[in-house]
Amino acid sequence: MAPPTFRRSGLNKKARFSVFTGYVAAAIGAMAGAILLALSLWRPQAFADLRSQALDIVSPVGEAGAEARTGTRGFFDVVSGYYRAGSKNAELRREIEIARVRLAEAKALEQENRRLRAVLTIRDSDNKPVAVARLIGATSSSSRRFAYLGAGDKQGVTPEMPVVAPKGLVGRILETGTNSSRVLLLSDSESMVPVRRAKDDLVAFAEGRADGSLRLRLINLGINPIRPGDIFVTSGAGGLFRPGIAVAVADEITKDGAIAHVLSNPAATDYVTVEPIWRPEAVNAASVPVEQELGGE
Amino acid sequence: MISPINPRARQDRFGRKINRDHSRILALSIPWLTVLIGSLVPLLPIITPVPVVPPLAFITMLAWRLVRPGLLPLWAGVPFGLVDDLFSGQPFGSGILLFSLALIAIEALEMRFPWRSFFQDWLTASVLITAYLLCCWLFSGAIPGHVQLTVIVPQILLSLVLFPVIARMVSVFDRFRLMRVRRVG
Fold first, then answer.
1. Looking at this predicted complex, what is its ipTM?
2. For the CA atoms of A198, A213, A41, A133, what is the dihedral angle to 10 degrees?
3. Alpha-carbon span B181 to B17, nearest angstrom
4. Do the bridges between strand B15-16 and strand A168-176 make them parallel or antiparallel, or are there none, so unpaired?
């Protein structure tokens, strides 16, 4: 299709002027964009308020969508459940018997744990969840991995709080609005979580790789003891995440650690809980410069 | 006896011709609304571990610009980019810059090639979409690594294949935009 002729202004002074103004406006717009981009690369949180207000406005749409998402997943699960129902049933029955025994053992351990804690007079840290909410969406076309959560300031959510799904850690709160907030997912390339192997004390860092997997980097280098299938949980170092939240399973062994996949698939989670920061004093201490004394003004 | 006239005789693809006219609000708002709805894709009930969903707002804007030159003003990239930045997860300003630059690039190209076929438009859009996604990777706010680069390759391919589909949808919207719905007199 040919462009409309009105932009061929010819001798018409007014038309020529309006074409020129269009170019000037577009160039100024692009320049303003470049300045804003430089500003937000320098200070990533500079426009957080604007973003969270916009998210507050549209979050009801996302809530409806989230309901549809979990609904349809349920439907497909029901259909796939009929496939090989008999053998699956037998397998599940066997598993549940084992699980019952394990549950009884865990209960005994829990009781013993409580008794030992009483002996040592350790106070149970009050880890009541701050809020329970739905993940209402996620950035699906940017190479950054953020999710949007349907709870914000009003529910007591503040930045840095861990977000946990029943299957494991999802990420942490980045920005909060009144009724919604942005979550930095584990797989974002800026996310880093201190983890340890569930069965022993092998510590590592889990870095996001933006493709849904994590890169585990061992802190103590040497012979790499990780085996495929090892489960990693949060270690509690840094004070942000409480210890023992499941994070990832190692898939592929690399030279200095492993490539692991995240246990909590955000697409499959219905509700997530926002937990308080585990040791706020440790997080605050980490932000105090070395030269300054802790607790001092 | 006079046979009744064919009821479709006084109609065209935009509706009845007698007593009806185009609605100015509809004709001007549909392009803007469709692009802005494209920006709300992150709120769709899809949560993907990998960025595979094409940048729908950007592709829709390109399609409108190529299908109907002159309908979107040259500065339209600023408001479209601003809204896209609020939800896309990219640092604020990257959308404003890249959307504006894309529109300016098409304008410059149009001066060189005023008459084009659809395949030339598709080629233009392919180059611009690829450049846009690479710039997004570069300006994502994280340190650009090769893993993210391999992740966006499927996204680029999907976007290129999706462009004709979206161009088709835009032409359907364009027909809807020009429906004669306003009653005259």
1. 0.79
2. -70
3. 10
4. unpaired
Q: Domain map of chain B by residue range?
A: 17-176
Q: Is the minimum CB–CB distance between A2 and chain B shorter than 8 Å?
A: yes
Contacts of B47 in chain A (CB under 8 A): 69, 135, 137-138, 140, 147, 266-267
Interface of B with A in 60-89 (CB under 8 A): 67-70, 73-75, 77-78, 81, 83, 85-89
Cα-based angle B32, A56, B55 (whole degrees, multiple of 5)? 45
> Which of B43, B119, B150 to probe by mutation at the A interface, max A CB count within 10 Å?
B43
Beta strands in chain A (DSSP E): 131-138, 146-149, 162-165, 168-176, 181-185, 192-197, 203-208, 213-218, 231-234, 246-254, 257-262, 271-274
Q: What is the pLDDT of residues B55-110, one digit of tens each?
A: 999 999 999 999 888 888 889 999 999 999 888 888 888 999 999 999 999 988 88
Which one of 2.60.40.420, 2.40.10.340, 2.60.40.1190, 1.20.1250.20 gives the CATH number of domain A131-287?
A: 2.40.10.340
Nearest to B173 by CA among B60, B55, B91, B50: B60
Cβ distance B136 to A55 less than 8 Å, yes or no, reads no
Q: Which residues of A touch B63 (CB under 8 A)?
A: none
pTM beyond 0.90, yes or no = no
Residue located via tokens 């023992």 = A244
Phi, psi (degrees; rounded to nearest 5) at A193: -125, 130
The residue ranges of every structural domain in chain A are 131-287
- Which of B40, B86, B94 lies closest to A50 in CB terms? B86
CA distance linking residue B154 with residue B149, whole number of Å: 10
Helix or strand holding residue B12 (H, E): strand B11-12
CB of A206 closer than 8 Å to CB of A172: no
